[in-house]
Amino acid sequence: MTPIFQQAALLSPLPWGLPADASAHGSALDRHLLLNLWIALALLALAHLILLFGLLARGHTTQPSRLWRIEYLPLAALALLFATLTVKAERLWAAARYTGADPTALQVDATGMQFAWYFRYPGTDSTFGISRPQLVAPGEGNPLGIDPTDPHGADDLVTSELVLPSNRQVDLRLEAQDVIHGFSVPEMRLKQNAVPGQTIHLHFTPTTPGTYAILCTQLCGLGHYRMNASLRILPPDEFAEWLAAKQKTVQP
Amino acid sequence: MPPTITPHTEHDKKHRVEDHDSGHGRRPPNDKRTGGGGDNDNWNDRPQGRRGPREKLSRFRLAVFFALSGDLMFFVAIVSAFFVSQTTGHYNAYNQYINEWLPTAIPPILWLNTAVLILSSISIEIARRHMFRENDVMDEWLGIGKPITRRAIPWVSTTIVLGLVFLIGQSIAWRQLAAQHVFFRSNPSSHFFYLITYTHAIHLFLGIGALVGTLIGLYASRQLETRQILVDSTAWYWHAMGLFWIFLFVLLAFFQ
Amino acid sequence: MKRNPPTEASLRPEPYTQRSTLRSRLTDHRTIGLQYLLLALIAVVIGTTLSLLMRIHLVWPDWPLPLHGPILPEDYLALVTIHGTVMLFFVLTTAPQSGFGNLILPAQIGARHMAFPLLNAASFWLTAVALVTLLSSTFVPGGSAISGWTAYPPLSAIAAAGPGQGLGMDLWLLSIALFAIASTMSSINTLVTIIRCRCEGMTWDRLPLTVWGWFTAALLSIIAFSVLLAALLLLFCDRHAGTSFFLPTGDLVNGVLHGAGSHNGSPLLWLHLFWFFGHPEVYIAILPGMGLTSMLLANFSHRRVFAYGTMITTTLAIGLLGILLWGHHMFVAGLNPFASSAFSISTMAIALPASAKVLSWLATTWRSRPQYTTAMLFSLGFVSLFVTGGLTGPILAQPILDEYLHNTFFVVAHFHLIMAMAGVFALFAATYYWFPLITAQSGKSSRFMSEPLGRLHFWLTLIGAYATFLPMHLTGLAGEPRHYAQLTGVPGPDGSLSPAGHLLANTLPLNRHITYAAIFLATSQILFFVNLARSFRRGKLSPENPWQATTLEWHPALHPNAPSEASDEQIVVHCAPCQYRSMLTGDLFRPQWIPEDTLGVTPTIKPE
User: Is the pLDDT of residue C261 over 50?
Assistant: First the structure.
């Protein structure tokens, strides 16, 4: 393991470090993040050392005068550094966001509303049914307003817990019913705002089975702080069992 | 290349800034910002209050310029919202992309209003030029009659009348639209039609207020400089409102 | 070319009104500057109190506020909203730009007053009305708005979306609209004064860097606040005129369907308009401080500012670039990913002029054995906090990293270190530095603030600042989100903690430390107020140019205490500022108004 990765491993069991990463793209992100943090720390220390040395060292009668050495050379070095970091970061961003999900990815819909997340699976026909805001009735078990007249919606499975299989790409559709919410899974290194009126796609591949936190990260009102949900990653066979069992409750 | 950017001596400074010597051997050019005296004195270097007859005027012109740039950004923000709204659609329940932008046909009276506003710009510009006509300025400053003010007043009044005609024309346009059941809240394009015309009309109304104030100032103010500044600032504001209107009108007429 | 004869008005020199009519007193720029500073002082006390309440509630959620009861989630969010709004607008935009600007700018360019005194007074009173309007929203039914200082719709557009989003939100809108107008008026004044009212010899390259900071900030204000005003108008129409600029079709809030018809709005439009204003806003807050730091470091190190021309260029470059990178607040907001990349590049680019400034500050003080007055200490503190806060900027500028860090406490740490602490350190430095000019009025002598108390204030504040905001980086890395009204008691299945609850509870030990540090930091500011109050009447008397400064505000004829004959004296500038020369036998310095090098050596005066 590279020293930086060792540092990540060191941080994760500590209560104030990065939570353990459980996604496929997470390790590259963590490496880049730690690289940035170390560089920032190094530059911070360097700047303060120069400042303190300059203040404490014995006086000089003439002030520094070489513009190239003091201003432009360090600036060129910094520009090179920032450019390198930017290129690396843009590569990671492009890999995550520029293209859509794999056609064989698992489709799940995550809808945020004041103040809960609901998740919808398309069911055996692999098609989401039509939903209308006029039909939303959480009290009657239809929080997403699925149209009962649409045959595609009959097998849609709505849960309040997101369950996914490990090692399979997921195409997550993000929607919001009322205000802007933020869908965030720190341990998957994922964050995306759900904007009402837009359907935003996000794709990722979970790797490690476990139970993880889903948080809302865009101020959405009173219950913003308790608008959480759980993400449960199961091994593929267990997930298939879970899905089949749940599907039976919708379509006996 | 000198080691520091800040020059060391006063002599260096003087040499670079005030030399006007480009080395071609001819007589150095006069600084056109002087009274034309030819001895290279820049009036801006004199103390405040002694910088010439245009000192206060140039200050107010600059203030009007900055205020208008802020105002321009205000309208730019609204116009960009217009374009975003025009091209924003949504997916309906059947996953079809729908863009419900229904252009609002502008009432034809808007063409007349535009012509009226252009005429009012012409009239205020005539008033403004009267304020600076040299021979008359001299007479008025010396207290021999008030030829400038006398000439400018009817043109300022004309502008006020034309401005009011414009506003009346706008309200007729709003009423015509309302008669066809197109209200502020009817659809996105009508939001913008009314918003754009309302905000412009409010700006114009404030401009008419400024013109009325100018008219009063022309009668009541005792300093020629103040009268010049009043007419000049109001005129530039009025021109800007006219120019903004032309852009907004073209937007509403041809870009919906 | 037309030559107009000089009017009699323009031949008369600008009269310095000795007779103090009410109008002249109200429109005097020094009075207005002090009024703005007083307003900012009141605002900062309110803002700090609110933030303390927030911190205390996070760590001790059951603690009841006296006279109010337990802090409910809507109360917490109202605290968040008013804290952000008050601090950003009424402290960080008014104090450096309008407060110290009005107080010092005319003197620093050799003018006797600002270009438009009446406009100046009007903008102050409008700002005061705006503050009162904002604070009054606490007392209306429903309470203050809860949508944060950023007021994203649809939360801010629909009254039913939360408590306080009715009348409270309308009052917030009105307050900020008034502030935007007042700020634009004030900026016009600043710009015309700098461009047209400079004295003889004060060319653009001899302008002090503080003035360049005010100039660039004023240019940014004119562009940014108008866009904010337009956004506020559109939001108001959405709330009350049935439009849908920001409301999408079929928005279901609290059981009520908004926009079932042809609403076609986009909440993202608000984000664009708001952040187009919001990003230049933070540069407006920091640019005057950066200019002041350069000047103060040079002053107390008895050095010229390193690379003066580059400092001017970087100030303008930061201003220009600052308009082009608003999208970095929106990386995960639903933007096109290509747009995110573009904004990321422009954001990284602005790190370069900022780094150039840091290099200049370091070079200016390098081995200079400076005089450690309180003002110098705060300027050094500014450099330190600016570097610390600024270095996390490039991290947040990379979208892939922002995907993890957006809206966590990492961002909170970043902007608090750089705005709340560095920006405020610049304000402290300005107060300690210009206190002799603040206290001097006709008949009253100029005084210093107490240096020992000032030095104690500096150290306690620096330690408090780092103790409070450094740990926030760690809680942010752990995933703690912003705007959470509670970190405990987040319910999970079967009564036990959910994974989210675990994550939040894990951050509690550090949060406790942060709260203790915040209480320490806030309490240390009492020293500042005590120092202020005491020094007004009983501070040590100060000579005319106590800091051996070279800039014009210390010119004897421009001194507030100058005799009335001094008002006729012509102010002429002969050289660039910070003409210091250190020699073995002592220090030479040449103020801008001295025609030739001062002969002889001036011993360094230690204030205490």
Answer: yes
Residues of B in contact with A198 (CB under 8 A): 90
Which residue of chain B has the CA closest to C270?
Answer: B81
Minimal CA separation from C248 to chain B, in Å = 8
CB contacts of B4 in chain A (<8 Å) are 65, 67
- pLDDT tens digits for A207-241? 999 999 999 999 999 999 999 999 999 999 999 99
Q: Domains along chain B?
A: 63-254 (1.20.120.80)
B3 near A CB under 8 A? yes
B chain contacts of residue A65, beta-carbon cutoff 8 Å:
3-4
CA-based nearest residue in chain C for residue B7: C576
A67 contacts in B (CB within 8 Å)? 3-5
Give me A203's structure tokens. Answer: 């794709």
Nearest to A186 among C266, C366, C503 (CB): C503
The residue among B90, B96, B99 with the most chain A CBs within 10 A of its CB, best to mutate, is B90
CA dist B40 and B38 (Å) reads 5
Could you tell me the domains of chain C? 32-249+261-590 (1.20.210.10)
Instruction: Mark yes or no for CB contact C162/A221 under 8 Å.
Output: yes
For residue C347, give the amino acid letter.
Answer: T
pLDDT digits (tens, 9 = 90+) for B211-249: 999 999 999 988 888 999 999 999 999 999 999 999 999
Q: Hey, which bits of C246-342 come out as E strands?
A: 251-253, 256-258
* Domains of chain A listed by start with CATH number: 3-98 (no CATH), 106-250 (2.60.40.420)
Tell me: ipTM over 0.90: yes
pLDDT tens digit string along A75-118? 999 999 999 999 999 999 999 999 999 999 999 999 999 999 99
Q: Go through chain B and tell me how many residues it has.
A: 256
Amino acid at residue number C124: F
Mean pLDDT of C182-191: 97
Closest chain B residue to A175 measured between Cα atoms? Answer: B91
Indicate the pTM of the whole model: 0.91
Q: Each residue of A164-181: pLDDT tens digit?
A: 999 999 999 999 999 999
Look at B93 and A199 and tell me if their CB atoms are within 8 Å: no
Residues in A touching C506 (Cβ below 8 Å): 15-16
Q: How far is the alpha carbon of C368 from chain B, nearest alpha carbon, in Å?
A: 17
Encode pLDDT of C63-87 as tens digits: 998 888 889 999 999 999 999 999 9
Q: Collapsing DSSP states into helix, strand and coil, what is residue C482?
A: coil
Peptide bond preceding B47: is omega within 30 degrees of 0, i.e. cis? no
- The residues in B 75-94 lying below 8 A from A, measured between CB atoms, are 90-91, 93-94
pLDDT of residue C244: 87
Q: In a 10 Å sphere around its CB, with 0-12 CB exposed, 13-18 middle and 19+ buried, how is residue A10 labelled?
A: exposed
**C191 chain-B contacts, CB cut-off 8 A:** 62, 66
Can you tell me the distance from the alpha carbon of C179 to that of C128, in angstroms, rounded to the nearest whole number? 9
Q: How far is the alpha carbon of C519 from chain A, nearest alpha carbon, in Å?
A: 22
Chain A CB contacts of C148 under 8 Å are 219
Measure the N-to-C terminal CA separation of chain B; round to a whole number of Å. Answer: 57
Q: Is pLDDT of B42 > 70? A: no
A117 by Cβ neighbours in 10 Å (0-12 / 13-18 / 19+) ranks as buried
**How do strand A162-165 and strand A229-234 relate by DSSP bridges?**
parallel
User: Is residue A190 over pLDDT 70?
Assistant: yes
List, for residues C456-466, the tens digit of each pLDDT value: 999 999 999 99
Give the relative orientation of helices C374-396 and A26-56 as an angle to the nearest 10 degrees: 160
Please tell me the predicted confidence (pLDDT) of residue A71. 82
Residue B76 C-alpha, separation from nearest chain A C-alpha, in angstroms: 25
